[in-house]
Amino acid sequence: xxxxxxxxxxxxxxxxxxxxxxxxxxxxxxxxxxxxxxxxxxxxxxxxxxxxxxxxxxxxxxxxxxxxxxxxxxxxxxxxxxxxxxxxxxxxxxxxxxxxxxxxxxxxxxxxxxxxxxxxxxxxxxxxxxxxxxxxxxxxxxxxxxxxxxxxxxxxxxxxxxxxxxxxxxxxxxxxxxxxxxxxxxxxxxxxxxxxxxxxxxxxxxxxxxxxxxxxxxxxxxxxxxxxxxxxxxxxxxxxxxxxxxxxxxxxxxxxxx
Length: 258
Ligand SMILES: NC(=O)c1ccc[n+]([C@@H]2O[C@H](COP(=O)([O-])OP(=O)(O)OC[C@H]3O[C@@H](n4cnc5c(N)ncnc54)[C@H](O)[C@@H]3O)[C@@H](O)[C@H]2O)c1
Known about the structure:
Blueprint (H helix, E strand, L loop, with lengths): L8 E5 L4 H12 L3 E6 L11 H7 L4 E5 L5 H15 L4 E4 L14 H26 L10 E6 L12 H20 L5 E8 L13 H10 L8 H12 L10 E4 L7
Parallel strand pairs: 1-2, 1-4, 2-3, 4-5, 5-6, 6-7
């Protein structure tokens, strides 16, 4: 069976851990050359570095240290990808952080950090990718595809995590805006909104109230796995998803349906 992303060049931010790591590994397994970026190469959950796993599986990739909140980092990274691989077919804006605080407890520094990574980081990734995609000839009807990580908590409220929830609502909004503004240029832009996906360091005590809330709200009899989100990302990155743009694909085990 032919691989879904054969020959595509795909960039993933926050690719060292969790969902970004699963997306990068799945893209490589589907035949994409993957450009990974993060502020560290160490997976939060432990194990081998993502690029090593890509190469061990016979894939082709590169890693660049990129702080997505800095335009200069993102600008240089996309330039390097195009020099190395010739074009940019897909970018996944996945890197994110959170403060875990309600409004009154959120300091200005925390607000700015979350907005810097989650919102400015997404703006930087989208803008630089669109700049590049506009210069490319269409392949299979598209000049390029953008996938932004939203969250179910950008749609319903995020318990005691104001800046995070606002940033994820922004991720879903900027997705629609780009989809509409650049549809005539054949640039496709969608978001994925995961429900609760178990990521991070195994054994690290998770906030019991948040975990209890997640289990109660998720009708499917387990919480999400990074691979659940990677499967959705492979579809949206592939030529199977061309007339789909501006959409927000919810992958949440039924959380929002309840
Ligand atoms: N895990 C969930 O339950 C869940 C639910 C909804 C949405 N999401 C979204 O999915 C995405 C991935 O979540 P995750 O759980 O895998 O997170 P994670 O914390 O496990 O991984 C995030 C990665 O981003 C990197 N990163 C942080 N700041 C960065 C920066 N300034 N520049 C570049 N990279 C940076 C981290 O080093 C890390 O490797 C995020 O956008 C998150 O908001 C996750």
